[in-house]
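Tokens for chain A. Residues wanted.
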């Protein structure tokens, strides 16, 4: 936003988004922006990491045999948040934030065969329960990372079109 004029963009129309660990960072950024009284217009969260404890049921049901495994999650987590005591800090686990109200509208996309599926749904539900505008879409036949697999998975195109439409609508609805 600081460079909005130089970039030729509207500083009121800023959204954040990401997939997997990037979804974690986007969710945390949305909370931090709200707390800094500099709210964002939207957040796009694609199979986001929302709870570093990795305790959602889908970690057990989908933790082996698919692209993202419990072992790889543990490896990534050990490099990002190695101190287990920090896993419950909202800046690592936005699902555990004490206040999820007054956040920008959100689109949360998950994949059915993904260890992160349930925590993505839990986060969408928590955002909604806190009074935020939230859309949740689960691509039940897909695995973690599917949105980057457009050459082989038609549903990747569907998910990206959905994300693009969400962002167009969210950014267009911001008062100029």
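Reply:
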């Amino acid at each position: 936003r600081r460079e909005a004029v130089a970039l030729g963009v509207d500083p009121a129309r800023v959204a954040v988004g990401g997939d997997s660990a990037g979804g974690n960072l986007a969710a945390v950024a949305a909370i931090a922006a709200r707390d800094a009284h500099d709210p964002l217009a939207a957040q796009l969260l694609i199979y986001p990491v929302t709870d570093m404890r990795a305790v959602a049921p889908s970690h057990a049901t989908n933790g082996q045999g698919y692209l993202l495994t419990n072992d790889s999650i543990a490896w990534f987590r050990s490099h990002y948040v190695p101190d287990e005591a920090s896993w419950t800090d909202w800046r690592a686990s936005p699902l555990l934030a004490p206040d999820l109200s007054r956040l920008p509208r959100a689109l949360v996309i998950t994949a059915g065969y993904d260890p992160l599926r349930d925590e993505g749904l839990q986060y969408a539900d928590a955002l909604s329960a806190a009074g935020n505008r939230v859309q949740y879409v689960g691509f039940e036949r897909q695995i973690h990372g599917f949105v980057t697999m457009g050459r082989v998975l038609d549903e990747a195109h569907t998910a990206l079109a959905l994300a693009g439409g969400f962002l167009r609508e969210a950014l267009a609805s911001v008062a100029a």
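The mean pLDDT is 96. The longest strand covers residues 134-143.
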